Amino acid sequence: MKPLFSKGPSLGVRLLVLVVMSVALMVVDSRFDLLKPVRSQMGLVLMESYWITDLPQRMWQGVAGQFGSRTELIAENEKLKTEALLLQGRLQKLAALTEQNVRLRELLNSSALVNEKVEVAELIGVDPNPFTHRILINKGERDGVFLGQPVLDARGLMGQVVELMPYTSRVLLLTDTTHSIPVQVNRNGLRAIASGTGNPERLELRHVADTADIKEGDLLVSSGMGQRFPAGYPVATVNEVIHDSGQPFAIVRAIPTAALNRSRYMLLVFSDRRTPEERATEAAMAQEEADRQGATHGQAPASQSAPAAPAPQAAPAAAPAQPAATPAQPRRQ
């Protein structure tokens, strides 16, 4: 008679068999590629198990995200309403400023303005070289731009045109290390030379005597020397004056009034480019022409309305007319 429960191998034997099988599988897996399909299928099965075990946590996070605190939602809603109201107010102001800007651009962006003194230009590029302060504008030789033409924004002088192209121009800014401009202190007329330092926020005044009357807060304007920049335009404001008793010159630093690294729209100044000799010659010619026209207009009324004075002058002119009248007398008889 067979026993009801058959007796199997002992636990030690089973453990040994499993160890041997595990070692065999590891050797086969490391030496051969026979178990790659099995490993990939096992990875799929384990991935599904990972996804199932992580499902409760993800569901809880989703529910918590959908049902937030009612107090927090109400506070956030009120904050958003306030921000929307403020943005609407700013939008209304921005609309008015935009319309004003459009009108100003239409006025300034015309090809010929009143007396053709200024014309607006727009910034379209900046020189990538950090040691050169140059910008590119959308006005060129076809628009009448010329070399050395002054460029300014709403606050003061920015620089001058140094390179011309048909439809664009390159402008050298005041703060470039190769640029200098003659200036004068607006308070007392003291003249100096403002040179660029390579820093868009600073100019330096060269060779200013240590005893010169200049101080912080003085406004520097263009002096007009050199016939390149028109006189009287703001250039910079003095922000630092260093006196050294051992040096003959003071160290004077100034901040440009123009927003050199922020302005997008600027004005091209069409000033008088004639030399002093040309202006003097044209003025003399205009005076001679005015004198000639004045003399011509002065003789005509005198011959018509003053018979006593011009009588001696009219006599020579009437003498040649008598021979022509002599043969005409027999015809009348």
UniProtKB/TrEMBL annotation:
All residue ranges annotated as the Rod shape-determining protein MreC beta-barrel core domain in the record: 124-269
Highest taxon in the source lineage: Bacteria
Gene3D superfamilies: Rod shape-determining protein MreC, domain 1, Rod shape-determining protein MreC, domain 2
Keywords of this entry: Cell shape
Region listing for Disordered, in residue ranges: 276-333
Endpoints of the signal sequence: none
InterPro entries reported for this sequence: Cell/Rod_1 (IPR042177), Cell/Rod_MreC_2 (IPR042175), MreC (IPR007221), MreC_beta-barrel_core (IPR055342)
UniProt key word Methyltransferase: no
Comp. bias regions, Low complexity: 299-333
Pfam families with a match to the protein in the record: MreC
Family (UniProt): Belongs to the MreC family.
PANTHER family: CELL SHAPE-DETERMINING PROTEIN MREC
Its job: Involved in formation and maintenance of cell shape.
Name of the molecule in the record: Cell shape-determining protein MreC
Gene from which the chain derives: mreC
